[in-house]
Design goal:
Order of helices and strands of chain A: HHHHHHHHHHEHHEHEEHHHEHEHEH
Number of strands of chain B: 9
Distance between the termini of chain A: 49 Å
Number of helices of chain B: 18
Shape of chain A: globular
Helix content of chain B: 40-55%
Order of helices and strands of chain B: HHEHEHEHHHHEHEHEEEHEHHHHHHH
Strand content of chain B: 5-15%
Largest interface: A-B, 43 and 40 residues
Shape of chain B: elongated
Strand order of the largest sheet of chain B: 2-5-8-1-9
Strand order of the largest sheet of chain A: 1-7-6-5-2-3-4
Distance between the termini of chain B: 50 Å
Structural class of chain B: alpha/beta
Radius of gyration of chain A: 29 Å
Number of helices of chain A: 19
Oligomer: heterodimer
Helix content of chain A: 40-55%
Largest sheet of chain A: 7 strands, mixed
Chain lengths: 465, 302
């Protein structure tokens, strides 16, 4: 029993679940208390201890099914226990036969282990493939490396399948042939599972994702026009509207702060003050709560595909920087550029002009979100902490580059909230080269933002929660 | 041990008006047996808070609730000195203090005298216990519900950690207070933000999903005795179809119950598109959702 759970825990760790030793100990202690013969109880114990949030449950459920249903641990062979002539001996024989023919590479070894009922090393291989791009870093500009590694595993799987067929064929004349055929079927089934695992997507459950589909109509005409189809005159109008709006919101936020931050009586201070009036507490002092030091980190896509919206988004980020104390802003096409300083020192139009002309953003390059996340993760991760809201503005169109969503996940783990604003209408999300669906699984909130009304809604939400 | 087996948990919870799935019962059983807190996640209205209430009913323990919000601090959650009372008392016993100091010659001596009486001012009498301290120092074991822990600040979460692992708090003036009985702690989260690994580590995790159809039927029948069987059947079927739509807020079990109650009040004994349309406001909390359901009305009645 202990071994089985340990093996399962090892497999879970390979699939990036955090299972600590303490959790294992808890789990073993709890297994003693329940009725082991009932699966729902057994599963509930493992699930309650190994997957500690809804997001992790998907991986857990997948592994649990693989490990306890598909792998059928009762068949796991233990060479010492196998009876002569039994099924287990046949299995071992066949495995040995296959092992002889396989090459001595980690991939082959992992496949053999998988056939023998231990998925840990195979999971490790898959994990290695998925995180390959992380390690190789800057030079890699496509997801081909990852793809070819997948292909390699796939080819090895096929090779093993061929070997099985050959083995069965060889022994067709012998009396054990029928038993062998059964085992071969069993192996083929497992190979099928292994293959499916290679191509399945393992996005976490993200039911808590806040998605905003509708918006209030603040301005009937101008507010509904997409940023892309505005005339020069309307652009001017829009800027003015945003300015007024920001001023209003600032007032509202200040009023709210004054009302909300009124704290309880500060006795220490009051008594100290009262000394000036011979011990009569004339001046009351209150413990005012400090202003929430919300920090915002904004990443804004300024590439060609969102060109028309980019100026407004920059405009919005500029106004955010005006409202909140700790805003860091970045613009990117294929690498993040820090534009906080430019925003701080210039008036809004000049600032945007400067960003468009004087920074080292390569506007003619292809957008690459994966690379942007990689560089951001490498250089600016220290900006994110549990008080930070990370706002990403962009269409998620990454030109079929590797999306590297695991980096976004790592960033999510560091900050308070991740909000994605997409200047495309929702119907187009995840069409073509858009990776929106992939990224959405790692956001706390995703909303379209393509006209003024939606923008206003968002800013109000952000300021007044 | 308060529960004998997982079945026992299920039965006792049912007796306390809470129908639980096998998974919920198992986790509750383990939490009670091992004294570990439960971290409950799930969509709003799926019965997270109700679980704590039901547990307090069937274990016959008091329930102490701490609602978390942004800016919640130790003074509101743990304890506070009642300064006003302290000031009042010092005023009232001024004479006594003067007597005490009458015989002293120097200021140093006077301070010494006062210091001897310090305990009188920083004692239980002036301590205002907030939910967490109440739960720890209660005479009988209690159920402690820490609601919406995801709304609290990271600092508060760190502070909770200490409490949940040691079940003791230190009050500088009084020393360390150890729990007399380990309370059954239930933390709920709506996943507004992710909880820290350290906190998750200390809890058994439980996710309460939308209930299975059969379970939902049983819940409605339990909570609203006297409701027509075929109405429940239809109601639950339609709710389940509504959940399949792409809504802003999918109706949970609490909405199902509200709806069933509304239908009973209206004395509707059958569901037609017209009745659904009229009572939709009970299930849908957003205007856009109402429109969406109306637009798909024919699909609900297939």
């Amino acid at each position: 029993m202990v071994n089985l759970v340990l093996k399962f825990a090892a497999a879970c760790r390979e699939a990036r679940l955090r299972v600590s030793t303490a959790e294992l100990i808890d789990c073993m202690g709890q297994l003693k208390l329940i009725d082991l013969l009932e699966e729902s109880q057994f599963k509930a114990v493992l699930r309650g201890n190994f997957a500690k949030s809804r997001r992790e449950q998907k991986t857990f459920d997948r592994l649990y099914h693989l490990f306890f249903h598909e792998m059928r641990q009762d068949l796991a062979f233990d060479p010492e226990r196998s009876e002569p002539g039994g099924m287990a001996e046949d299995l071992n024989e066949m495995l040995e036969g296959l092992a002889e023919q396989s090459e001595n590479t980690p991939v082959d070894q992992a496949i053999m282990d998988f056939l023998a009922g231990d998925p840990t090393s195979y999971l490790q291989e898959i994990q290695r493939v998925e995180s390959q791009a992380e390690a190789s870093g800057q030079g890699l500009k496509s997801n081909l490396g990852q793809l070819s590694s997948r292909l390699e595993i796939l080819m090895r799987l096929n090779q093993v399948r061929k070997n099985i067929r050959a083995l069965v064929k060889d022994s067709r004349e012998t009396p054990e042939a029928r038993g062998r055929q059964g085992i071969a079927d069993h192996f083929n089934e497992r190979l099928g599972t292994a293959q499916a695992m290679l191509s399945e997507d393992n996005r976490p459950y993200n039911e808590a994702l806040k998605q905003v589909h509708t918006h209030d109509i603040h301005y009937p005409d101008l507010g509904e026009k997409p940023f892309a189809s505005l005339t020069a005159r309307e652009i001017q109008d829009m800027r003015e509207t945003i300015e007024v709006l920001v001023r209003k919101l600032k007032d509202a936020a200040t009023r709210r702060f004054i009302a909300r931050s009124k704290g309880v009586l500060d006795v220490k201070q009051t008594i100290r003050q009262s000394a000036r009036y011979q011990g009569v507490p004339l001046e009351l002092k209150f413990k005012d709560r400090p202003l929430r030091k919300a920090k915002i980190v904004a990443l804004c896509d300024v590439s060609g595909s969102v060109w028309s919206a980019a100026r407004f988004m920059l405009n919005m980020i500029y106004s955010l920087q005006d409202c909140f104390s700790g805003v860091s802003s970045f613009a990117f096409v294929c690498a993040p550029t820090n534009i906080t300083d430019i925003f701080d020192k210039n008036e809004v139009n000049q600032a945007i002009e400067k960003i468009m002309t004087q920074t080292d953003i390569t506007f003619d390059a292809l957008t690459d979100y994966g690379e942007v996340f990689y560089q951001f993760h490498r250089d600016y991760l220290h900006l994110l902490n549990k008080r930070t809201t990370l706002i990403i503005v962009g269409d998620g169109r990454s030109n079929y580059h590797h999306p590297r969503e695991n980096l976004l996940e790592a960033m999510r783990a560091r900050c308070r909230r991740v909000v994605w604003l997409n200047p495309e209408p929702e119907e187009f999300w995840n069409s073509g080269d858009s990776e929106m669906l992939t990224y959405m699984a790692y956001c706390h909130e995703a909303r379209p933002c393509r006209n003024l009304n939606q923008l206003i809604d968002f800013i109000e939400d952000l300021m007044l929660v | 041990m308060e529960f004998e087996s997982v079945e026992d948990v299920q039965q006792k919870l049912a007796a306390a008006n809470y129908i639980s799935s096998r998974e919920i019962a198992t986790v509750v059983f383990l939490a009670v047996a091992t004294g570990k807190p439960i971290l409950v996640e799930g969509p709003a209205g799926s019965g997270k808070t109700e679980l704590a209430r039901a547990l307090s009913r069937c274990l016959k323990r008091d329930k102490i609730r701490l609602q978390c919000y942004e800016g919640l601090d130790e003074a509101k959650a743990l304890y506070e000195w009642e300064y006003a009372k302290q000031l009042l008392y010092t005023q009232m016993i001024k004479g006594k203090i003067n007597d005490l100091l009458a015989a002293t010659d120097s200021i140093a001596e006077a301070v010494e005298r006062i210091a001897e009486q310090e305990n009188a001012f920083f004692s239980e009498r002036f301590l205002l216990a907030r939910p967490l301290l109440q739960a720890i120092s209660a005479d009988h074991p209690v159920v402690l519900l820490i609601d919406e822990v995801d709304k609290s600040d990271p600092e508060f979460e760190a502070f909770l950690l200490e409490l949940l692992s040691e079940f003791q708090v230190s009050i500088p003036e009084l020393g360390i207070r150890k729990a007399r009985h380990i309370p059954l702690v239930i933390l709920t989260s709506n996943n507004y933000r992710d909880m820290s690994d350290a906190l998750k580590r200390r809890c058994i995790h439980l996710y309460i999903d939308y209930p299975q159809r059969e379970l939902e039927k049983r819940i409605v029948e339990l909570k609203l005795p006297g409701i027509e069987k075929h109405l429940v059947e239809k109601l639950v079927a339609i709710i389940n179809r509504i959940r399949e739509l792409d809504l802003k807020k999918r109706p949970c079990i609490s909405e199902t119950l509200d709806w069933a109650q509304a239908l009973m009040v209206l004395q509707a004994d059958d569901l037609s598109p017209a009745t659904v349309s009229e009572t939709l406001n009970v299930i849908c909390k957003y205007r856009a959702d109402t429109h969406m359901v109306r637009a798909h009305m024919d699909r609900l009645f297939e």
